[in-house]
Amino acid sequence: MVTAAVAVVTLGAGFAGGFYTQAQVTNDSRSQPTVTVTVPGPTVTVAGPTVTAPPAGSPGVAPAVNPLPSGVAGSPTPTTVRVLSASPDGGQGGTKSVLTGRGFPSNEVVRVSFIIKGDLGEDYKTRDLRDTMTDATGAFSVEVVIPSDLKYDANLNAYLRARTTATKTETVFDLIA
Asked: What percent of the chain lies above the pLDDT cut of 70?
């Protein structure tokens, strides 16, 4: 239901002028849309025309799909996105965290390291934690223990890194002193 302001002008015995009133527009799927206007005197209801779908190309209407000509290849398949996450993604030294990755090369060794970075983003301290293998889909999940000798580096940027021969991906780890 839509409510709209409608200007009504009346001329009659002893009254000439215009005023605003509210009109209610309803559209029941079984009937034509109607507008009801309340004015002094009788209530007037006006039925509108039957609503049909607007033609293609009208504002608010999606254009018709224009298919590719035969023999033209579509877009290439998107490449797999590498994703790396830690759970939990923060804690003190000695915390156990599960590092999960996907989108890596299949059946390849992954070296997991804990990295502290300096102010310029360079590797300041690196601790190799363990190696694991990706499965046939390029995924892995491995439990690691955060080094406990780095508590004084808690104010610097800390990361867990997964590295293969061709890839390097990092995720933030919030090291708490």
From this structure: 55
